[in-house]
Amino acid sequence: MLGAIGIALMLGGCSAPAGLAVFQRDAVARDQLPAEAASTEIPKLENSRLLVEADGVRYYAAQGENRTLTCLVAVSDARPGNFIGGCGSSRATGQIVSISGQVGKSATLVTDGFETKELVAQGWRKIHQNVLVGGR
To answer: What pTM does this model have?
Structure first.
């Protein structure tokens, strides 16, 4: 497996997601993480939602089993089995986590309503209300 899940050391103590409304809707089949990404051991990811597909990459938000972590997982459509992910505190406000690596993209996950003008000025491109790609 070419993927890896990096965990930010920003663990929170809250059991509910603080900043992503996407978790308030019912999951559908397309929200399921691909098997290779869902089978990672730390953390065990569940409650995933597909946020956006852009430039051959699918971006998912997922939560760890205790829901104190919110994760961003980027899965390459061009290279099956190739993904990267990272997690941050579900209590975070603003940027939850940034990832970069094997899918050829850098991405950051932000909470609902977070002002992204500064990130855009730094070279990030907003592809979803919660996902920006690129950066420096």
So the answer is: 0.82
List of residues 6+ apart from 89 with CB closer than 8 A: 8, 10, 11, 12, 14, 68, 69, 70, 96
Q: Are 8 and 72 in contact (CB under 8 A)?
A: no
- Phi/psi for 31 (5° steps) reads -80, -15
Helices and strands in the chain: count of H runs, count of E runs? 2, 9
Residue pLDDT tens, the chain, 136 long: 333 333 332 333 333 445 799 999 999 999 999 887 776 655 777 789 999 999 999 999 999 777 889 999 999 988 877 889 999 998 888 999 999 986 667 999 999 999 999 999 999 999 999 999 995 5
